[in-house]
Write a structure and sequence with these properties.
Residues 133-142 have a biased composition (Acidic residues). By secondary structure, the protein is an all-alpha fold. The protein has three helices and no strands.
Length: 142
Amino acid sequence: MSFVWKWIFSKKENNNDEVEVPSEVVEVIQKAKKDIKEIFDEEVIPTNENSEEEKESVILDLEKRRQRKIEKFRETEDSNENQNEQNNERRTRFISVKEFQEKKDTQEFEKEIHSLSKIKKNKSSMKNKNSNDEDDDQFKEF
C-alpha cells in the first residue's frame, strides 16, 4: 500500500497528469472499489440534490445493512467456534473410549494372569500333596 502513496505524492510533486499509472496501483484501487461496493451494496450516500429525509433514510439503511453483515460475521464466528468445540468433544470422547477399552483389556489380561497363576498354584499344591502322600506312604513302609 505504501507504493500507492509514494506514487500519488510523486504525481503531486511533478504536477504531471500524464504519468503512467503502475499496474500495482490500478490493482489496489480496483480492489478498494470492489470492497467499497461490497460494503455499501453499490449504494452511495445521496448528494445535496436529495432531501434531508432521503439522506437520513439511505444512511439508516446502510447502517442496518452494515449491522446485519456484522451480525452474520459474528454468527459465522460463533458457529465455527461451536463446531470446533464439538470436534474437540468428539476427540475427547474418542480418546476416553479408547482409554476405557485399553483399561478394560488390561483388566481382562490381569484377570487371566491371576486365574492362570491360581491354576499353577493349584497344580503345584496338588503336586506337593501327591508328593506328601508318597512320602507318607514311604514313611509307613518303614
